[in-house]
Amino acid sequence: MDRFFSTLANRTRLKILKEIVENPGICVCELAPLLGKDISTISRHLALLKQSNVISIRKSGRRVIPIINFPEKIHEIMKIATEILQEKEAEIIKIM
After folding, report:
1. Which CATH number goes with the domain that contains 87?
2. H or E segment and range at residue 59
């Protein structure tokens, strides 16, 4: 369980999940330019998401397509994690 939540406690992985939700069937090669990251970075993050059972991978020819497992639950968790990250950033800004 710790691994699951620590996997989601990363802004890049949350952005990846957001793109997968908003663009079903998106290919890994399309995620990299959308997020301004190289494919190897995206692949590492996807591997962690897959190891934590957050996503599955489907292959269609040469396309590698990440699929969210339990989309409704993951969406709820993503929403909460995003809110927490935003609150933490606001606290940091206040301190500065």
Report:
1. 1.10.10.10
2. strand 55-60
